[in-house]
Specification:
Distance between the termini: 131 Å
Strand order of the largest sheet: 1-2
Radius of gyration: 58 Å
Strand content: under 5%
Order of helices and strands: HHHHHEEEHHHEHEEHH
Number of helices: 11
Number of domains: 2
Largest sheet: 2 strands, antiparallel
Length: 340
């Protein structure tokens, strides 16, 4: 037997038997056939033996590695295999359950899904709801100082700003539009007609005469006086002095306090930056409008008297309208129940 032979390896055993049988056969032929054939037979036997040994050694080298890997797999504890199998089955079950729930939720009716969500929410304890008191339209505390666009639905009230209201300053275009609204509003023609009748009844300008002709002269003079005064006090002078021509309502307080406030706005006004300043727009603007009136009124022996009279009349009317604007929200609520 070859020294490297392994009795436990069946493949090596076969090769050994082949080599031994070949050697015996060669010996017999050597005994029978002669020395020359014996030498060739020996060389061939050696070559066959070497080839078989190389093949056997390569097979033997591969088999132990496979045997060791198989032995490691077989030596894994049974407990670990059970845990691994259990984990795999559990994960598979969870994934299948989750996918089935998603499929059901996608196929579910949206209304039913909303109902399920509401039912789930209803099972939770209700959070304490905050107490909110809705605003009452008839509550004077909520509606005090709220100015409408018109007084009695007729008189323009565009210059009035509701109480506790902060507005951005007007540009020159906005001031011109404010003066235009006050001058050419339909109600202003009614007011001019009333003032013209008062002036004619008092014969403030005897040169105008009486009757329809005289009334016409009074009418257009009063209209022009008011138009010039509106543009001077609401647009031209405020643009130069950077003052706000609007009236800001106080809205609360006693009668004397609020009346004093309304009259004082003839002399104190707001600036475009939100401060307070002397009301040049009212005083200077009304005086300038009265002075311009001398150009179209009949010549008088003492024109300054009429100028002062027109100036005082315009400022006085603005004071009356400021007071009316201040108390109109209260009158509207108390008398007309917020109708206007």
């Amino acid at each position: 037997m070859h020294p490297n032979a392994d009795s436990n390896n069946p493949r090596l055993g076969n090769w050994q038997e082949i080599i031994e049988s070949t050697a015996d056969k060669a010996a017999r032929e050597n005994t029978q056939g002669g020395g020359e054939n014996l030498k060739a037979i020996r060389l061939s036997c050696v070559a066959v033996a070497l080839g078989g040994m190389l093949a056997a050694s390569s097979v033997q080298a591969q088999e132990p590695a496979n045997a060791r890997e198989q032995s490691r797999k077989e030596t894994v504890p049974a407990g670990l295999r059970d845990v691994s199998l259990t984990t795999n089955f559990a994960l598979t079950d969870v994934s299948l359950t989750y996918s089935s729930q998603n499929q059901v939720s996608q196929n579910q009716d949206p209304q039913q899904a909303n109902k399920t969500t509401k039912d789930e929410k209803s099972s939770l304890p209700n959070a304490p709801a905050p107490s909110v008191t809705p605003a009452d339209a008839n509550n004077p505390n909520d509606q005090f100082g709220k100015q409408p666009k018109r007084i009695l639905g007729i008189i323009p009230n565009y210059r009035a700003v509701s109480a506790n209201t902060h507005l951005p300053p007007l540009d020159f275009k906005g001031e011109l539009w404010l003066a235009t609204q006050d001058t050419f509003d339909y109600s202003n023609f009614i007011l001019v007609g009333a003032l013209a009748g008062i002036d004619m009844a008092g014969k403030s300008e005897p040169a105008f005469g009486q009757g329809a002709e005289g009334y016409g002269k009074y009418y257009w003079h009063v209209f022009v006086d008011g138009g010039i005064e509106n543009y001077m006090t609401e647009a031209i002078v405020p643009a130069a002095t950077r003052e706000d021509p609007r009236y800001y309502t106080m809205g609360q307080g006693g009668f004397i306090k609020r009346t004093s406030y309304a009259v004082s706005r003839l002399f104190i006004t707001r600036t475009n930056s939100g401060g307070r300043t002397f009301n040049l727009s009212e005083i200077v603007g009304a005086g300038a409008a009265a002075g311009i009136g001398n150009a179209y009124y009949p010549a008088q022996a003492n024109p300054w008297v009429k100028t002062y009279q027109r100036w005082g009349t315009q400022v006085g009317l603005d004071g009356v309208f400021n007071t009316l604007k201040e108390f109109w929200p209260d009158i509207n609520h108390a008398v007309f129940h917020g109708k206007y």
